[in-house]
Amino acid sequence: MAFTKIISNLLLKSKSVEVPPYPSFILMEVTNACNLRCSMCLIYGEGVTRKREIGFIKKDIWQKAIDEMGSWSGQIMLDLHGAGEPLLHPELFDIISYAKTKGNLSVGFLSNATLLSREKAAAVMETGVDWIGFSVDGAQKDVFESYRKGAILEEVEDNINYLLSLRINNKPTVFLNMVCHAEADADLFVEHWKGKVDTLLLSIKRINDRKKNKPISFVKPCHLLSQQLIMGWDGTTVLCCEDFFCDYITGKFPEMSLSEIWQGRKFNKARLLHEKGNQRRIDLCCYCDSVAFHEFDEKTCEHNRQRTLIRKELPSIAQ
C-alpha cells in the first residue's frame, strides 16, 4: 500500500466501531519493576520524572483474571509484560502454566533477556508459552550498552540463543524488537539474527515526553479501543497500552469484572469521543505516537532454510 494511500485511509470518516463482547487482546502487567534503566525508556528513561508505585501482581488477582478470560467464548491473546521485566516476578512460570490450562488463551511476554538463565529458559519452555519477544537494540556492543543501561550484549545474545536451541518445531514463536537509534546499524542486526528467529521488528525511536509531539488530527476511531484491555499489576485498568502512569483509568479488577470494565461507562465514553472525532479531549490520544497509527514495510528472508519476517516501522503520519 502506498504511503499516500495509508494517509487517505486513516483520515476518512468511518462508521461507528462495533465493540465485541470481549477484548481479543489483554495485557496483564505482572510487574512494573525493571532491572535496567534504558535511556530511551518511556517509564524509567532519561528525563522522565513521573513515578508510579512499583509492585508485583498477586495470585488472587492473576488467577481470577485468567479464570474469567478462560470462561469467554472467543480466542484471547494474553500478554504478560507491561512497564517492567516479567522475569522478575517469582510466579511468572506459574502464571503462564495456569493460563495455558485455558483452551482459548494464547500466552506470551516481552523481556530484555538479561535474566534468562539456563534454568529459566528451561522453565519457560516447560510452561507451553506460545510466544516470547526480546528487546535487543542492535548488534553493536557500544550502541546497545550505551542505551540499555545495565545490560551486556554478549550475555543477552547468549541467553536468547540458548532458548532458541531448546525449541522444538520452532515453538514457541520468538521475535526480536530493535529500536532504531541513529547510531545503530539495522542491516547488521538483520544479518545477525535472520534465520534464527521468526520475526525481526525494526521500531522507530520515540521521544520520552509525549507532549512534545504535534497534536493528532485523526477522525477515524482508534481500533485498539475495540480490541485491547490493559490491566496493571494492582488490578487497575487503563484505556491504552500507552497509558504508562494511569492517566485514564477505566476500572479496578476484581472489584469490577473484566467484562464489566470492557463494557463500562469510562471505556464507552472514550470510544464515543473517538467516534465523534473528539480524540483531542483525551490527552493520551491527543499526543499519541503509538503503533496504532503506524504502518510497516514487510519482507521475508530465508537463511539456513529458516524464514524470518522483517517488519520495518514507518514514520507516524500523525507527525
Number of DSSP E strands:
11
Characterize the overall form: globular
**Spatial sequence of strands, sheet with the most strands:** 9-8-7-1-2-3-4-5-6-11-10
- Ranges where pLDDT stays below 50 over 5 or more residues in a row are 1-15
- The share of residues in helices is 25-40%
Portion in beta strands: 15-25%
What structural keywords apply?
319 residues, alpha/beta, eleven-stranded mixed beta sheet, 10 helices, 11 strands, disordered N terminus
Record the SSE blueprint:
Layout lengths: L2 H9 L13 E4 L30 H13 L4 E4 L12 H8 L5 E7 L6 H10 L3 E5 L5 H7 L5 H14 L6 E8 L5 H8 L5 E6 L23 E4 L4 E3 L10 E4 L5 H5 L2 H11 L7 H4 L9 E8 L2 E8 L6
Parallel strand pairs: 1-2, 1-7, 2-3, 3-4, 4-5, 5-6, 6-11
Antiparallel strand pairs: 7-8, 8-9, 10-11
Helix pairs in contact: 3-4, 4-6
Overview of the structural elements:
This protein is α/β, with parallel strands linked by helices and 319 residues long. 28% of the residues lie in helices and 19% in strands. It has 10 helices and 11 strands. It has helices at 3-11, 59-71, 92-99, 118-127, 141-147, 153-166, 186-193, 258-262, 265-275, 283-286, and strands spanning 25-28, 76-79, 105-111, 131-135, 173-180, 199-204, 228-231, 236-238, 249-252, 296-303, 306-313. An 11-stranded mixed sheet has the order 9-8-7-1-2-3-4-5-6-11-10. Strand 2, helix 3 and strand 3 form a beta-alpha-beta unit. The radius of gyration is 19 Å and the shape is globular. Residues 1-15 have low confidence and may be disordered.
Task: Give me a quick take on this structure.
The chain has 319 residues and is of the alpha/beta class. The protein is built from ten helices and eleven strands.
